[in-house]
Specification:
Blueprint (H helix, E strand, L loop, with lengths): L2 H8 L12 H11 L3 E5 L5 E6 H11 L8 H4 L13 H11 L3 E6 L2 E7 H26 L1
Antiparallel strand pairs: 1-2, 3-4
């Protein structure tokens, strides 16, 4: 199973933020959409970084309420790991586990085409394993 299959099931809708957006606005967007991170895109749609709940919590710990007046560009994680639609679920899970992040932007031909969360990846992996178990059961039942 690949990241493309996850995006096919969940859709490719992306909730992105502008680099000049104040963190207070980003927080409101994350809360309203019930998501944990948002990619930061320039006007041409190029991925500049990603702002996650973790980035915001760290900024709040360092700067207090003043962090809410900073911009997405100031708080975002800049060195973002990305996947392609051809990335396997197993590869995506390994990237996220090793990098200790929960949101993986998906790039194709230099453009952001989706984002998958660790929840999306785990759900796909569980479904894949359930299908493997069912196939093995059918094989064993047929061989008996």
């Amino acid at each position: 199973m690949t990241v493309a299959a996850i995006l096919h099931d969940k859709g490719r809708h992306i909730v992105a933020v502008d680099p000049a957006a104040r963190i207070a606005e980003v927080v409101a967007t994350l809360a309203a959409r019930r998501i944990g991170a948002a990619p930061v895109l320039d006007r041409a749609g190029q991925l500049l970084g990603i702002v996650s709940e973790r980035d915001i919590v760290i900024a709040l710990a360092q700067h207090g309420a003043a962090a809410l007046d900073r911009t997405a560009a100031q708080l975002m994680t800049r060195n973002v790991s990305t996947a392609s639609p051809a990335t396997t679920v197993k590869e995506a899970m390994a990237m996220m586990t090793e990098g200790r992040f929960r949101h993986l932007p998906v790039m194709e031909a230099g453009m952001l085409v989706g984002i998958v969360s660790i929840g999306d990846v785990v759900k796909a992996r569980i479904a894949q394993q359930a299908q493997d178990v069912d196939s093995l059961r059918a094989y064993v039942a047929g061989a008996a």
